[in-house]
Structure formats: C-alpha cells, structure tokens
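My current task is to audit a protein record that another person submitted. What it holds is a sequence and that sequence's fold in token form. Thanks in advance; the entry in question is below.
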Amino acid sequence: PGMQVEELMRYCPNIKEICEVDCIQPIFLDSTNIRPGHWIKIADAGQKKYNDYDGFVIAHGTDTMAYTASALSYLIQDSKKPVVLTGAQKPIDVIGSDAVRNLTDAFIVASDDNSFGVQIVFFGSVICGTRARKNFSKSFGAFGSINFPEIARIQDGRIVRFINDPLPEKPRFYSYLNPNVSLIKFVPGMRNDVLGYILD
C-alpha cells in the first residue's frame, strides 16, 4: 500500500504494448483493512468511469482480494466489460516477485474482447470473482477456484479459455451491501442456542 499506482506501472513497461492505461487510486491502504464501505467505493469508481474504458484492472492485496472480488461481482452485475483483480505474493520491487507477471496477465485479460465480469487473475489462472479463494499464504499459485472450473489460463501471453459464456446484455450497479453477515461453521455436537444467539 505504500506504492502509488504510477510507480507500479513503471515496473511493467510492456503493458503499454497491450493497451492504453489511466490510473486512479480510490483507496490507499493495506488489504487487511478493507471493509464493505471500501467495496462500495471501488464499485462507485467503476460505475463513474464505466463508459470511458474497455476494461478495468484493480491492484489489490491478497489477504482480502477474494472477498473484494465476490463483493464486486454483486455490486457490478452483468458487466460486459472485464473487472480484473490481481495482486502478488511478493512486493513488485523484490527480486523474484510475481507482481509483474500478475499485473501483465491482468491487463491481457482486461484488454481481451471476450472477457467480461469480475475476475481474479493470479499466477496464470483466471478465476470467476464469486468462486475465488486464497488457499496458500506463501505459494505463487495462492488462489483457487472453488466448486467451479477456472475461466481460463494465461500461457505465454495468450488466453486459453475453458468457458465461453455469451456476453451479458447490460450492466447493473448497486451501491448498498448489508454488513450484518455471519459465517456459521457447523460442527458435531454444536448447541442449538448458538444459532439463536447469532440470529439475535
């Protein structure tokens, strides 16, 4: 979070060969501090700029990126344009970082005419925004697609698609999320009053 977007782009000069890039920075914080209000702010920024661009790339920390992708999938529904989230396991200015590859792959996907909707691009995988989960803390292949195949893979700068759904008709934007959500994990021997307590 200590690096401006323009600084990130300086590490990836080859992206200029893929597309034209404009940078905005609606949020400037560590991803562990992302909250529902930030998701709405990101979605609102996308809605304001939606007609100006062919695709969007969101640089995001990995800790909450799957949550952001899922939230944006519901805040920006049926988008004909790709909204691609990516991040890295190692900072971009560290030798051996995966950031340059992930950013470049994200722009390849965001620039493709057959890409649409909210996706995560990470270590060559293109994952539906509602299906992504961070499975590993240290591995470059940190994200997986849960109970759904990957949309595509990036190989040698080219997209190999596994799913070719038709493009949506018209995007729908939302600006409200109900924050009163709780995850309940059922375990053997769980007491009934736990559910009542949470519902209250």
User: Anything to note?
Assistant: The chain has five helices and ten strands.
